[in-house]
Amino acid sequence: MQRLSTDIALGRGLFLVRPLFGNASCSPFLLKQSIATCCLQGELQKMQKHFIPGDLLKWGSLGFVRTSRYATGFKPLQPKPLDSIIDMESVKSRSPQDLATVWDDYHLGRGHIGTSMRAQLYHLLEHRATTCEYFVIPLWRGSGYTTMFAQVQMPHMLFTGLEDYKARGTQAAPYFTVSYYTEFAKSKDLVLIRGDVVFTSKLSDSEAKWLLETTQTFYLNDVRYKLVARFNKETRDFQFKDVLQALDMPIL
Length: 252
Prior knowledge:
- This protein is α+β, with helices and mostly antiparallel strands.
- Helix content is about 35%, strand content about 20%.
């Protein structure tokens, strides 16, 4: 998927100057080692049968701030409204390309990922996610991979480690959250996307960006989407090695 943005200067006066994060700090804890592919297959089938939640709002403590509190009860997802991030009036006259670039550049170095997509692609992603809410993505690190569990329930995506999800179920803390803003879908054919890395000890900004872009390709590419559909609808036929092969990763 090609980005709409081009290399033009960052616009001024479009974004509201206000704090984006709370003051809570996160308590780092170590990621477990990757599961061998043969063992992972059985674990995924168990998860799909017993553990996958049916409601995005049941993920614990989902406020889009960097925090370590995640086992203190449930509360609804509360992303930042777009008008708390961007001056809506100032961007009405901007072209889609200009707005996309300003949005992307604004988030650089702020602990967020800013990107965008055409409205048509968003609607395809939204449509496919209605029946295929879950997927697993291998994140390559060093000489192996860590498996990430994705929940796609538009206009949001959540990512957490598969090991953490197996251990904590619906109270597993998301490492990375994504919100899609459709306010300009009709007027500019543009959907703004904001990602927030909740646990910096678990996931770097560059890894989060790769996860977002890669997950989107699995939902938007017809060939890759067959794997997503198989994972959600034909569990017994799903092979994790097919995901590794699609990403040109070695089968360990």
